[in-house]
Amino acid sequence: xxxxxxxxxxxxxxxxxxxxxxxLGVVNMGLMLVWPSVAFADxxxxxxxxxxxxITLSDTQMDFVGSILPAGSLLGTLAGGHLVARxxxxxxxxxxxxxxVLAWVILAVSYNLATILIGRFVNGLxxxxxxxxxxxxxxxxxxxxxxxxxxxxxxxxxxxxxxxxLVSGLCLRWYQISFVGIGTSIISVVALWFIPESPSYLIAxxxxxxxxxxxxxxxGVHADIEDEINDLRVKNSNLKSxxxxxxxxxxxxxxxxxxxxxxxxxxxxxxMQIFTVNMTRIFRESGTLLGEAISSLIVFLTLLVGSxxxxxxxxxxxxxxxxxxxxxxxxxxxxxxxSYVHTTDSEKAARAEEIKKNASAMLTTHTIxxxx
Length: 372
What we know:
GO terms for molecular function: transmembrane transporter activity. This is Major facilitator superfamily (MFS) profile domain-containing protein. One of its GO terms (cellular component) is membrane. There is one protein chain. 83% of the residues lie in helices and 0% in strands. It is mostly helical. The longest helix is centred in the C-terminal third of the chain and has 53 residues, at 319-371. It starts with a helix and ends with a helix.
């Protein structure tokens, strides 16, 4: 007996809700990435802390605050693989609440550059861990038919975090935004209590009865889940006694890793993270008439719309074509931005040189008159 269309839609809706629950943790990552942009804009207006004392950051120090997060993220990513293998995707996401809340508390009570840097480093640890646990979890839960669309949910929720922190910055001080992050962490933990553990992890740890029960709930009562269980069992048994370097010798895995490294290289070196962290600073220096906050909000809303569109189109045009289209748009935008910066800097240099020449001429004329 086949599953009725209404039952399929209801089951897919449940998968959407579960993936959304997992992705609530990714919202916090979005808050953390854009926090410097909002905090620096607020500090330019009022640099007081929660204690009432002032804190002044130079441009170099602001750059350091924005760039220290990836350092913590690197350690978090390295530790994330081990943590996920030991306690599972869901367990990892639950434990991640500790560094997440800790980081926000440190930023809330920061009174100098050192404490802000510590908070940002812990932010990075969380981001690295959540990328490993959250993204893998979101891909494993849904059916193959909707896996491509739901795989875009982490990015969607990440950009939702961008917007939340930017809107929060319109009415909250830079240290008060941390309480929004703490609230998001609590909501994420509550949602995770209603989400099952990854079937892949359950099978890897020998809990096949639980895995079968969760897969039955995810795939429906009419689905043949034994093939999926056997496939997961074979993959886990084949890789258990194999070292990392032996895994790299497997052609399919090696090819997949090369593709992933290239994609991550493009993602991390395209400059998008730099724009994200320094969005308000960029718009403030550009002299936008809308103001840096509204201009940044428009950019992040555009990102959110793009991610939403990809959810509905990715299964029709494919992941590769979607990536080619997005990278093509990115190249055009980077060329436009680079041309603008080059032209602006050239004009500033020309004006500075003209002012220097005029000042030199006036000084020379004044000197001649004095001598006469």
